[in-house]
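Re: copper (II) ion structure - here you go.
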Amino acid sequence: MISAFCPTLRFWGATVLATPLAMAHAAALNINVTGSDGKPLLDAVALLDPAVGKAPVKAMADVEISQAKRQFNPRVTLITVGTKVTFPNFDTVRHHVYSFSPIKTFELKLYAGVPNAPLTFDKPGVAVLGCNIHDTMAAWVVVADSPWFARSAANGQARIEGVPAGNYRLRLWHAGLGLGAEPAAVAITIGAGDAEHHARLAVSAEP
Ligand SMILES: [Cu+2]
């Protein structure tokens, strides 16, 4: 009995010492995202909002959307409100990056290298980026107004860590859904342990 009990005590001692008090009951939400065909979906975005009120967010540092081989990299960028983004061009051709999206309308006129000033994304939502010269170039910037978010990997898994116990609404987005076609938010309760959620999105092909 004693030998089984002592390691537990040590485990809890280490956990409490290493973690701020407010995070003591934080857990993770694992989301498994598939498309219409049931296969794992890459680059789906999961945002967790408190059921009541808003949680403060901090701007992120050193975010870059580059252009190389006439493509944006990454294609989907997930940032918090207030984050500045730079758009370095590593191609020898010039690009002309723009967005007509209401959350961030801009134009970086025909340029090579790195434009002088980064752009600040100060409203939540999704901005669709294109290039005036190369029609096939497309990228998306998802701006989160919650500190709890994740993007799915190629295996369809997204993991939101450090979520305090409580009630939340989970929102999901994917570029293949088209504007305004996101599924309704889902109620999620986070307790002491990690939670799991499976979502099947009406996405039939990569955009
Ligand atoms: Cu271009």
